[in-house]
Write a structure and sequence with these properties.
globular; UDP-N-acetylmuramoyl-L-alanine:D-glutamate ligase; four-stranded mixed beta sheet; 259 residues
Length: 259
């Protein structure tokens, strides 16, 4: 299958803390990991591992973090297609003793502005981009997106085969304003809701190390599975196993499932 991700990059610095501090408190942490990530990067690496290749259309800042991000994504097997402008967005992650993460982003999200012809793609996951890129991505056989970009999805005005996101995060709330074939809303250890019906979570293959990247990994794998013709039940199970597995490793890439 020919796959692509259209999305953003953040350079993430993760810190281990005993507990996320409340207002006015001070937390003491230890360095954990530093990687280029963000929803677009996480999804692209997972699809590259499962499909054998993935084109990642993104924006990198004209700075040292942008250059380091490009090098790292190529090391991870992603076919990178980057526009270069602005400053690379940063994110700071605090991971507590239970592996739960809290994210603070710093800087503007850099959204891809243009795409080449996309008619030859079997599956495209749209994580972030300008409305024009969404319209171009619609030429793919299967197009999925996240409600995190709801204002841009409305402006793009195309049919989405799949809209997938968190059912718990207010930033991913969906109001029914799009033309969507299938809506999937995840609820972590409770499973989630797909096409109006609840689905069960998948068992963890090991202890939780770090929940960063679980949702984007789930969405990427669900996109691939549905695009290749898996039944909804099988696709949800496969994506659930991928999401459960990734949180047993440090950072978004160490425990992603291979091909």
């Amino acid at each position: 299958m020919r796959c692509a991700v259209v999305g953003h990059v953040e350079w993430v610095d993760s810190v281990l803390v005993d507990a996320v501090p409340a207002a006015g408190q001070i937390a003491h942490g230890a360095p954990d990991w530093s990687e280029p990530a963000g929803g677009g990067g996480v999804a692209a690496v997972q699809l590259a591992r499962l499909a054998g290749a993935c084109d990642f259309f993104t924006v990198l800042g004209e700075d040292e973090l942008g250059r380091l991000s490009a090098e790292r994504f190529r090391e991870l097997g992603v076919d990178l297609h980057a526009e270069w402008f602005g400053a690379t967005r940063r994110a700071f992650v605090q991971v507590d003793a239970n592996g739960e993460r809290t994210i603070t982003t710093v800087g503007e999200k850099l959204r891809p502005r243009s795409l080449p012809p996309m008619g030859g793609y079997d599956a495209v996951f749209f994580v972030a981009g300008e409305p024009e890129t969404l319209r171009a991505a619609r030429a793919a056989r299967f197009l999925s997106a996240t409600p995190r970009e709801l204002p841009w999805l409305r402006q793009g005005g195309v049919h989405l085969d799949l809209l997938v996101g968190s059912g718990r995060d207010p930033g991913e709330a969906y109001d029914g304003s799009l033309d969507v074939g299938l809506l999937v809303q995840t609820e972590g250890e409770r499973g989630g809701v797909a096409d109006g019906r609840r689905y069960a979570p998948q068992p963890l293959p090991g202890p939780v190390a770090d929940t960063y990247g679980a949702g984007d990994t789930f969405a990427a794998v669900l996109t691939l599975a549905l695009a290749r013709g898996d039944s909804l039940e099988a696709a949800l199970g496969f994506a659930g196993r991928a999401g459960a597995t990734v949180i047993t490793g440090k950072g978004p890439y160490t425990a992603q499932i291979p091909r």
